[in-house]
Amino acid sequence: MAYFRYGTVAYRKWAQVSESSGVGRPRDVRRDVAMHEAALALLTEVGYDQLSIEAIAARAGVAKTTIYRRYRDKAALVAAAVEQRQGSAPPEPGGGGLRENLLAVVRWLAREIAEQEIGVLGALFAGMRGDPRLAEEMRRILRRDQTAMTDRLRGEELAPGAAELFAEVAPGVIVHRIVFAGQRCDDRFVRHVVDDILLPLLRKGIRT
Amino acid sequence: MAYFRYGTVAYRKWAQVSESSGVGRPRDVRRDVAMHEAALALLTEVGYDQLSIEAIAARAGVAKTTIYRRYRDKAALVAAAVEQRQGSAPPEPGGGGLRENLLAVVRWLAREIAEQEIGVLGALFAGMRGDPRLAEEMRRILRRDQTAMTDRLRGEELAPGAAELFAEVAPGVIVHRIVFAGQRCDDRFVRHVVDDILLPLLRKGIRT
Amino acid sequence: MAYFRYGTVAYRKWAQVSESSGVGRPRDVRRDVAMHEAALALLTEVGYDQLSIEAIAARAGVAKTTIYRRYRDKAALVAAAVEQRQGSAPPEPGGGGLRENLLAVVRWLAREIAEQEIGVLGALFAGMRGDPRLAEEMRRILRRDQTAMTDRLRGEELAPGAAELFAEVAPGVIVHRIVFAGQRCDDRFVRHVVDDILLPLLRKGIRT
Amino acid sequence: MAYFRYGTVAYRKWAQVSESSGVGRPRDVRRDVAMHEAALALLTEVGYDQLSIEAIAARAGVAKTTIYRRYRDKAALVAAAVEQRQGSAPPEPGGGGLRENLLAVVRWLAREIAEQEIGVLGALFAGMRGDPRLAEEMRRILRRDQTAMTDRLRGEELAPGAAELFAEVAPGVIVHRIVFAGQRCDDRFVRHVVDDILLPLLRKGIRT
DNA sequence: AAATAACCGAGACGGTACGTCAAGTCTTGAG
DNA sequence: CTCAAGACTTGACGTACCGTCTCGGTTATTT
């Protein structure tokens, strides 16, 4: 078995990417696809904490063993499923000024969070205690979008460090709106965020 | 049994407050206290998703049925426990200026979220699907602290609508720091939030 | 409380008849009637082991405590209900000969057992272990019907001791038919029992 | 999952004999042995209705789920345990005449019923309502002994149909003695049954 | 071609927790 | 006092998943 000892506990070596030593029957990639699709579908149907590996296996037409051979637990599976999913790319910086670009990016970010990340948040929440490595990995997934997104904001009329500040403020405000306030991120809210929060913070010359 | 039919499903009538018709043995309030204390203690010890009703019952010295008689499920119990909890009050506005007051409030808010709300977030994620009423109630709990908190910031040298803006931005940034970035809210971070984000947004005359 | 100590266990004194010491609010006899009716009805509906005190109380419109105040447990309640029940009297010995009388009695006995005693049997099986006194009481009830029944068969053309033999054989054969063979006691079976078993055994002069 | 749909309800396929499709990890037969032994032992110790699956699992050193995976409920488990048990075979027809053979068989039957079947009777009685299939199965078990037993009585000086009559009368009379009359089946009673009931009924030439 | 090594489906297994139910006791208020 | 209502403890129930394991069988690569 693919176990090794560390301290007194047996850990299984999970593949970061594939790790395949080349020998032996290779893994069937279609199984991954099926598992990810089933996981995402069930995630939106029943929510994260009602999501069971058993159900994912059944829906994907895959043996439970096949799942556990690849993923440590539910959180890791969901993380992989979300990562692999086709996240729509953030919008290209159009010809408009800073405000137009911010509006586009925030609008895209709000939709992204509202539609999909809610499952990731559950997985993150469940997994971060007790498995810091997994938590770090899920943060990496979240950051992936962030960097791609903040790249759209470099240059221009921005104060120094504006991109980092954007990444610090914008997602938090949007999540707060959705989860805590329980309200939709309509266009009015997007304009409010850009005009009343982001522009004052990011625009060069505003701050002393 | 205290069931009634709604559609094709049998629902149990859960008491919002007490519902007691006056007849029969009244519910022992100490049981509620014990349950809430056990729930909160275990919540911080093992986290939300490792939290089991079985363990709460054992810790509280209470029968499982007694819990199920009062709360539909784990999320509802956690919600009640959190609501009843002694939320430490936000600090009084001392004699210092706006910056000192902001620092105190943000420092308090960061500790509050890090230590306690983190469990509520789990309950919120878990319960909001399938029971919007519960989700709404938990949001109400969160809002309660927020309004109590923003009251500390009225008057002074604030721009109009500053309190609402604070409630919109501060918790989001803190949660983002803890959950997404996975970093502690040390004093350096608190000063950063106040100096680089809040003060520019809230100070009167800064914004055009 | 109506408890007394025997060894280390607390026993409650249950009334054989009423025991009322005259002090306090008198028991409402209609509650007994309701409880008995509910018990008998549910007994034939769901069987003995599916019979729950909870259901009896609900059906009778009586509090569970009211039942426990009067009867030790399910078996005792069923025993009382059966005892009080209107057992249809065995048929009078008509003008016909021995065979006609036997046919009438066996037919009545078969219906009696099939419809009602079947529940008592469950109580008997369940209660006889652990409470021999209760078992003896239920046997007394069964015997009461038997003796009333065998009285119909005295005199006539019977061999000496025929009535006792009848009480020994007939119920056993009928119960065997119902419980072990799982078949109905139709008229063909009744004639078979009378012609092939009872008459050869009971008729005077047949036996040497 | 080993489920199939019947009507609107999902049933689990329980193995009558083994049913194993050959695929998957095979069941450990020693688990069956342990469960049966524990069930029979506890059955005689505490009686059927005090018999709990929990206790059987503990005694057998087997997980509760392992029991529920194989048997629908308590009655099914007891039925299987009883069926598998080595029922002592009825005595061989010795060289003696009809009376000696009858005495031997009835004596064996009385002991069999008195010592062991009492638990089975309870199980049969409790389970036969509500689960006709189980009732039928337990009847099959009882019949198995009966046929083996009546085989000892064929030929000889018997009236035609005597074996069937024996199977119809003897068990009923014995059960009646034990359960209804609450008396032991001593040797005096055995002789009484043979001489006063069975011989008159079964002997060739007695009946017309 | 054969051996090797890993993958895969199916399902048994020991567990933990679930949510429900019934039994029997205890606590209140009303008659 | 007795009575009715209902909270409460205890513990069994049967179900759902968990994560591990053992099979029989199937690919691939390596020898």
Automatic annotation (TrEMBL), chains A, B, C, D:
UniProt cross-references to InterPro entries, sorted A to Z: Homeodomain-like_sf, HTH-type_TetR-like_transc_reg, HTH_TetR, Tet_transcr_reg_TetR-rel_C_sf, TetR_C
MF term (GO), any: DNA-binding transcription factor activity
Chain ranges of the HTH tetR-type domain: 29-89
SUPFAM superfamilies: Homeodomain-like, Tetracyclin repressor-like, C-terminal domain
Record flagged with keyword RNA-binding: no
DNA-binding region: 52-71
Keyword line: DNA-binding, Transcription, Transcription regulation
PANTHER family on file: HTH-TYPE TRANSCRIPTIONAL REGULATOR RUTR, TETR-FAMILY TRANSCRIPTIONAL REGULATOR
Protein's name in the database: TetR family transcriptional regulator
Upper lineage: Bacteria, Bacillati, Actinomycetota, Actinomycetes, Pseudonocardiales
